[in-house]
Design brief:
Oligomer: single chain
Largest sheet: 9 strands, mixed
Pathway: Pyrimidine metabolism; CTP biosynthesis via de novo pathway; CTP from UDP: step 2/2
Strand content: 15-25%
Structural class: alpha/beta
Organism: Sander lucioperca
Shape: globular
Strand order of the largest sheet: 11-10-12-13-21-20-19-16-17
Catalytic activity: UTP + L-glutamine + ATP + H2O = CTP + L-glutamate + ADP + phosphate + 2 H(+)
Number of helices: 21
Radius of gyration: 25 Å
InterPro entries: Class_I_gatase-like (IPR029062), CTP_synthase (IPR004468), CTP_synthase_N (IPR017456), GATASE (IPR017926), GATase1_CTP_Synthase (IPR033828), P-loop_NTPase (IPR027417)
Bound molecules: glutamine
EC number: 6.3.4.2
Length: 592
């Protein structure tokens, strides 16, 4: 019998509900259970495909080409699973399915209503999707973690809450439970931990017919015992059902934090799951990882030359992939955000300080990463950055747009085609080195993007990236693009040592570029960041970090193995818990 764990949020969003839900899944998986996840986004958009990264952060791409909420990335990374587009449920998708049924006449002339038709559709979706295998062994999951986006009480989430209210009786008590993630603010004026917002949100949840089995309290410091007792008393739960999730230096600590407070044994009793409660191998690895992340002595900096640099969420998976790789080689990662538009000569005139600051950041970094993107703004700046990395022999990785611009840069500055460009930015260019080569997906609305998992074949043994992939003959990675390197101009590049070492199955699409005579100059048309894992860093990113830390050559010579000295910090020196990127921290709230 499938066990469902619904994770709801109280007070405010953006306090780490996704990380907590993923961590619950992680500790259950470490007990040998098969775990899957569903993320519910109560907005009316069908999916995240049309979202602006300015507003929503990155669009996460799945194997099947699903463009989904970036939280799905948390589940894939924490649980090391592969999800499908239907694991992201939105109001839009539910209404679309109900309306399609209505048009087909499936409702036999009845009035179609939120209750019961929408709520039924939600439950059916969840039951069906929970059973879809997400691991390589193709077995049906045993536990499904369902994260409901937003906070309880939002108008948008009402049909979902109502659906689960009904659902708890349908599937029986021992198969369903609710974890409510709430906020315990600590206004600096008194320094006291305040429980009132949590009390009201639990009351609201109860009013809608769901009772929390665990209240996970997000707070900046450890929850005081008296506060725990107060929550227990006013929210009508046992003290053991109140779990403290205080700010921690690394998100890898959250599974351990939950496990220590008895979450596994509580859930195994509550959901009647016979699971082993001995120390678990997998959690040991998480412990090792989180300890290691506290003891990193050496630093490695990467300039992230992008566009939406005010919102680090726009590059969530890219940053994760960098972190995974840095951790694998025991280096503390510093990401230097560089707004590529500031690297352009026009900025020098208008805002000289910004221009010089941007170049200072770029030039002082150990490696350069130009990520994916759309739209012309800042592309010239990215080309300047690539040119600098190529000439100064700085390790460089170009992802998707980053690779396309590396092709433009080489064409302009080495082949002498000064107007070379992508037709995305200059349709009139005499040297269209990157052109529109859409993949036609008939029947799919607006389906001209090349989306999801596609195969890349390595064309030569002599490729750094191929070695980094463990000398694979081919790799399957996720794509999201419309433009491609112009295959007709290929030979001009290869004559000058700019090689297209990976291509698609038909040999028409250039997937991987490498430059001879450079410590690390790699471009990939796909997005390797989407499949990077904490314990299995993505090879193109690992290559960048290794090169930036000056370790790539020895790594390759050792047959692509990290020596224990590289992977573990052998000196138990001072801890540096200030890694600002992957920590779990509450947003600062004003105390008025
Ligand atoms: N805009 C480019 C294209 O459509 C690159 C897309 C991307 O970087 N994801 O091909």
């Amino acid at each position: 019998m499938m066990k469902y764990i619904l994770v709801t949020g109280g007070v405010i969003s953006g306090i780490g509900k996704g990380i907590i839900a993923s961590s619950v899944g992680t500790i259950l998986k470490s007990c040998g259970l098969h775990v899957t996840a569903i993320k519910i986004d109560p907005y009316i958009n069908i999916d995240a495909g049309t979202f602006s990264p300015y507003e929503h952060g990155e669009v996460f791409v799945l194997d099947d080409g699903g463009e989904v909420d970036l939280d799905l990335g948390n589940y894939e990374r924490f649980l090391d699973i592969r999800l499908t587009r239907d694991n992201n449920l939105t109001t839009g998708k539910i209404y679309q399915s109900v309306i399609n049924k209505e048009r087909r006449g499936d409702y036999l002339g009845k009035t179609v209503q939120v209750v019961p038709h929408i709520t039924d559709a939600i439950q059916e979706w969840v039951v069906k999707q929970a059973r879809v295998p997400v691991e390589d062994d193709d077995v049906e999951p045993q536990v499904c973690v369902i994260e409901l986006g937003g906070t309880v009480g939002d108008i948008e989430s009402m049909p979902f809450i109502e659906a689960f209210r009904q659902f708890q009786f349908k599937v029986k008590r021992e198969n369903f439970c609710n974890i409510h993630v709430s906020l315990i603010p600590q206004p600096s004026a008194t320094g006291e931990q305040k429980t009132k917002p949590t009390q009201s949100s639990v009351r609201e949840l109860r009013g809608l017919g769901l009772s929390p089995d665990l209240i996970m309290c997000r707070c900046s410091t450890v929850l005081e015992n008296s506060v725990k007792e107060k929550i227990s008393m006013f929210c009508h739960v046992e003290p053991e059902q109140v779990i403290c999730v205080h700010d921690v230096s690394s998100i890898y600590k959250v599974p351990l934090l939950l496990e220590k407070q008895g979450v596994v044994s509580y859930l195994s009793r509550r959901l009647n799951m016979p699971i082993e409660t001995r120390p678990r191998k997998m959690l040991t690895k998480w412990k090792e990882m989180s300890d290691r992340s506290d003891r990193l002595l050496e630093q490695c900096s990467i300039a992230l030359v992008g566009k939406y640099t005010k919102f680090s969420d726009s590059y969530a998976s890219v940053i994760k992939a960098l972190e995974h790789s840095a951790l694998a080689i025991s280096h503390k990662l510093e990401v230097k955000y560089v707004d590529s538009a500031h690297l352009e000569p026009s900025t020098l005139q208008e805002e000289p300080v910004k221009y010089h600051e941007a170049w200072q950041k770029l030039c002082s970094a150990d490696g350069v990463l130009v990520p994916g993107g759309f739209g012309v703004r800042g592309t010239e700046g990215k080309i300047h950055a690539i040119s600098w990395a190529r000439n100064q022999k700085k390790p460089f990785l170009g992802v998707c747009l980053g690779m396309q611009l590396a092709v433009c840069e080489f064409a302009r500055n080495t082949l002498g085609w000064t107007d070379a460009n992508s037709t995305e930015f200059d349709p009139e260019s005499k040297h269209p080195v990157v052109i529109d080569m859409p993949e036609h997906n008939p029947g799919q609305m607006g389906g001209t993007m090349r989306l999801g998992k596609r195969r890349t074949i390595f064309k030569t043994n002599n490729s750094v990236l191929r070695k980094l992939y463990g000398d694979a003959e081919y790799v399957d990675e996720r794509h999201r693009h419309r433009f491609e390197v112009n295959p007709e101009l290929k030979s001009h590049f290869e004559e000058k040592g700019f090689r297209f070492v990976g291509q698609d199955v038909e040999g028409e699409r250039m997937e991987v570029i490498e430059l001879d005579d450079h410590p690390y100059f790699v471009g990939v048309q796909y997005h390797p960041e989407f499949t990077s894992r904490p314990m299995k860093p993505s090879p193109p990113y690992l290559g960048l970090l290794l090169a930036a830390a000056g370790k790539l050559q020895s790594y390759l010579q050792k047959g692509c193995r990290l020596s224990p000295r590289d992977t573990y910090s052998d000196q138990s020196g001072s801890s540096s818990p200030d890694s600002e990127i992957s920590e779990l921290k509450l947003p600062s709230i004003s105390n008025e």
